[in-house]
Amino acid sequence: MLGQMQDWPLLVSKFIEHAAINHPKREIVSMLPEGGQFRYTYAEHEVRAKKCAQALQKLGVKFGDRVATLAWNSHRHMEIWFGASGMGAVTHTVNPRLFPEQLVYIMNHAEDKVLMLDITFVPLIEAIAGHLTSIEHYVIMVGKDKMPETSLKGALSYEELVEAEDGNYSWPEFDENTACGLCYTSGTTGNPKGVLYSHRSNFLHTLLALAGDTLGITSTSVILPVVPMFHANAWGIPFAAAGSGAKLVLNGPHHDPDTLHNLIVEEGITVTAAVPTVWLGMLKYLQATGKDMAKLTTVTIGGSAAPRSMIEAFQRDYGVRVNHAWGMTETSPLGSLGSENAAIQSLSEEEKLDIQCKQGRSVLGVEMSIQDDKGNALPRDGKTSGRLMVRGPWVVESYFRGEAGNLLEEGNWFDTGDVACIDEYGYMQITDRAKDVIKSGGEWISSIDLENAAVAHPKVAEAAVIGIFHPKWDERPLLVVVMEEGQCVTHEEMNAFLADKVAKWWLPDDLAVVTELPHTATGKISKKTLRETFKDYSFPEA
Ligand code: ADP
Asked: Is 359 close to ligand 1, i.e. is its CB under 6 Å away?
């Protein structure tokens, strides 16, 4: 017997419609890539999103066509999200930090029809336009008066296109399983692969993002999603903001602590989210200037492991709760989040901090399992680590155009490529990326744990650990560090510092100092590049 409730398709246009009707005067504030700041309301935003949909139709965009964006977080970028996806096209958020060859690859692979780009990225696209095979229109996201001289064929002004429309448009209804957005993973191995979100997956993910235990977003929140919209949908925050009627502040191309702090104070930000590097920069800025965090109450940190010292400093010195989160492009991205559950409430502050350093507990809608290589579930004892497997309605089923073949294992589990353990309270801890674990004498050394311990050294700015061939142990850890300015640490000093923090057999066999560590397009340390750099290295005693 079937239920007898309405079959209302879960479409993302519902979010912006909801915001315009129920929170019409709530603001969206946007830092513009061409300079200056812009603000308007959700009611005005929805009209412009509709005008954008009309303009896209005039450009020949049809249901299912891909509309690429190469843009910072801004009100225009949001208009395109809602305009393109709302009309049934697919918003393809392109990561401008990819290498030019990767940009060419993914835009051709996606067969993008229109490219909407910020003025900042015009030179980048001019250089590769000759290789882009499917783009019919380049739209530069500025007013006609700000249009640059460009070699991009027939380049159009976004403002001019949008303003030519009347906004007399109704969001169409269609199947909730229709593709909504496309985002390529940065491809640490092989070519980037496209994750094709549906309206349904984004809608369900948004409901979860708005749950009390998740990002801390309510209608009275003021949100600054520092995490870029081209990185796993800015963790779903723009949808969640519209869905809740929260005030949304978009930082455009600015990621420096000074600008971010100004926004936090001026706009009264209460909730924000970003990768650890951004918050490490902010912490240094606060410590140097003696400023506080004004009305900020919650920071969600994810993308890479958040160091304990940072979590502690934000909470102790600035009264800001840190929620450590884990996810990936393939999981939309929210998979687990470290808010407190009842089971840990009676623990000591120190014990709670230990748990906060883990990557959180699985959210409703994402199931997690730790498995061995044969697919057997391993105990949730906080010690046994294995492959982190996930499944749920906003977890990838297959990559765009079937790249990499069948992704799911028995039971529809998706192998995240992370190695993790889950403790008795349900908190998951990433111990490594499967390919970064150091396999020493048949045992595993977690590069992440070693890095976190090393970066807590006051003279160290950044640290990475890679496995290097060892004739006796197969692999041993090499610690690669960037020093704080004018500082120096020897291998012996570092090992003495690490001695009470990690097992003795984990201590790095050597330490190498570099001026800079290589990073991927999503801001993570590129172990692949680092391994390449040190491919001829051998340990002194080996
Ligand atoms: P990429 O394209 O670089 O894979 P993703 O954002 O999809 O970009 O990366 C997902 C990966 O990032 C995860 O599989 C995990 O290895 C890592 N990651 C995400 N959040 C955390 C976290 N809080 N701690 C440690 N690693 C994390």
From this structure: yes
**Tally of domains in the chain:** 1
pLDDT in tens, 265-285: 999 999 999 988 899 899 999
Average pLDDT over the chain, rounded to an integer = 95
The CA-atom distances, in angstroms, between 56 and each of 68, 87, 173 are 12, 9, 17
Q: What is the pLDDT of residue 444?
A: 82
**Helix (H/G/I), strand (E/B), else coil: 504:** helix
Q: Which one, of 530, 524, 529, 517, lies nearest residue 232 by Cα?
A: 524
Mutate to test the pocket of ligand 1, among 195, 230, 277, 304 (most ligand atoms within 8 A of CB): 304
pLDDT tens, 398-407?
999 999 899 9
Q: Are 477 and 450 in contact (CB under 8 A)?
A: yes
Residue 449 lies in a domain: yes
Note whether residue 446 is domain-resident: yes
How far is the C-alpha of 270 from the C-alpha of 233, rounded, in Å? 20
Of ligand 1's listed atoms, the one at least distance from the Cα of 184 is 2
Q: Which domain holds residue 494?
A: 439-533
Burial of 42 (0-12, 13-18, 19+ CB in 10 A): buried
- Dump pLDDT digits (tens) for 137-192: 999 999 999 999 999 999 999 999 999 999 999 999 999 999 999 999 875 567 89
Residues 367, 235: Cα–Cα separation, whole Å: 18
| CATH code where residue 462 lies | 3.30.300.30
First to last CA, the chain: 70
Helices (H), 290-346: 308-318
Beta bridge partners of 28: 40, 248
Query: Do the domain assignments include residue 395?
Result: no
Pick from 299, 328, 330 the residue to mutate for probing ligand 1's pocket: most ligand atoms within 8 Å of its CB: 328
**Residue 451 included in any domain:** yes
Read off the amino acid at residue 337: L
What is the Å distance from ligand 1's center to 143 Cα?
Answer: 37
**Which two structure tokens, joined as six digits, stand for 353?**
């901090």
Whether the model clears a pTM of 0.70, i.e. scores above it, the answer is: yes
Output the pLDDT for position 542.
Answer: 57
Whether 519 is in the pocket of ligand 1, judged by its Cβ within 6 Å, is no
DSSP one-letter string for 245-283: T-EEEE-BT--SHHHHHHHHHHTT--EEEE-HHHHHHHH
For the Cβ of 108 lying below 6 angstroms from any atom of ligand 1, the answer is: no
